[in-house]
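Database export, one record per block. Field names are fixed; values are copied verbatim from the stored entry.
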Amino acid sequence: MRIGGVLLAVLLFWTPLGAQQSTLPAGAPPDQSTASDQVVVPAGTRLPLVLHNSITTRNANPGDPVFLETTFPIVLEDRVVVPAGSYVQGEILEAKRPGKIKGRGEVRIRLTTMIF
């Protein structure tokens, strides 16, 4: 990915804080879930993501959408809780261009939604 004229290799990680996925037994109404039906992904779990749209510090603005995809499944207790190929949406919070002589460009992103 090119950011402000500097080639950077980027590997993004998602660190969920209390992210949960609810799983219900077959035939159970969705409003009758219990605490034992939920799986909690521990905080600090790293989730490798691939960026689907290009981002440059030259034209990135706060609020611009970002689209990513998981590249590896997250498995807890022999269950896949986040399958590979899940889509992740987010938005740009801030973009800083690199300095003229030296410096690095910086893009801050907030991940907002995961679609299984």
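Remark 1: Confidence is low (pLDDT under 50) at residues 1-25.
Remark 2: The two ends are 26 Å apart (CA to CA).
End of record.
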